[in-house]
């Protein structure tokens, strides 16, 4: 579902009168005057709310003789919260592009000629920096602690700190003095950043 569609539905439902109208329409299709009488609302007020619900595709209308009859869109009303907060299509592509741009910006800021200048204080940036270093390890292969140190040293002198951080952030797994890649660093970072953007969008969508 597109972000704009989700936001339209959430906004349309954030009104007591519209919820009452939808409840009435779930009982049976009705026209404006009938809803007005049933809910004790002015016909103009009912018409206003029906327009908002129609724009959100929560109701539809058909003309029967002299009346315009409104009915609930049961397919839309059967949407789950998961459906509403899932972002697809162009918006998802835009999010992924933002993530890539942000990642590249962080890498350019903290790496100079392949060497890490400093460890970022912010968790998200530190994660990206560590993931960049983790790319030097081959998935499926086991490493001794000495081998891990030798891979990290050309990138950053304090290899002990980086080695510990890689394990703590689950980019490297450890069993005694044996290390290996725990998960694809690119996939881990993509997933973590995607969740951040999704949470931001949910918050904005629900409070606009």
TrEMBL record:
GO terms for molecular function: DNA binding; DNA-binding transcription factor activity. InterPro entries: ArsR-like_HTH (IPR011991), DUF2087 (IPR018656), HTH_ArsR_DNA-bd_dom (IPR001845), HTH_MetalResp_TranReg (IPR051081), WH-like_DNA-bd_sf (IPR036388), WH_DNA-bd_sf (IPR036390). Keywords: DNA-binding, Transcription, Transcription regulation. Residues 1-92 form the HTH arsR-type domain. It comes from the Bacteria. Coiled coil: none annotated. This is Regulatory protein, ArsR. It comes from Vecturithrix granuli.
């Amino acid at each position: 579902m597109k972000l704009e569609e989700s936001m339209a539905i959430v906004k349309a439902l954030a009104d007591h009168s519209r919820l009452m109208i939808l409840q009435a329409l779930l009982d049976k299709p009705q026209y404006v005057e009938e809803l007005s009488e049933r809910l004790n609302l002015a016909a103009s007020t009912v018409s206003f709310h029906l327009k908002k619900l129609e724009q959100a595709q929560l109701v539809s209308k058909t003309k029967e003789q002299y009346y315009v009859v409104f009915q609930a869109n049961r397919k839309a009303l059967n949407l789950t919260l998961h459906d509403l907060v899932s972002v697809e299509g162009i918006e998802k592509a835009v999010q992924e592009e933002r993530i890539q741009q942000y990642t590249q910006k962080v890498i350019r800021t903290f790496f100079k000629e392949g060497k890490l200048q400093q460890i970022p204080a912010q968790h998200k940036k530190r994660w990206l920096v560590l993931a960049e270093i983790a790319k030097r390890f081959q998935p499926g292969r086991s490493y001794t602690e000495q081998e891990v140190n030798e891979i990290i040293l050309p990138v950053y002198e304090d290899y002990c700190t980086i080695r510990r951080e890689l394990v703590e952030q689950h980019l490297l797994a450890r069993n005694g003095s044996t290390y290996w890649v725990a998960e694809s660093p690119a996939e881990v970072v993509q997933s973590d950043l995607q969740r951040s953007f999704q949470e931001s969008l949910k918050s904005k969508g629900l409070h606009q």
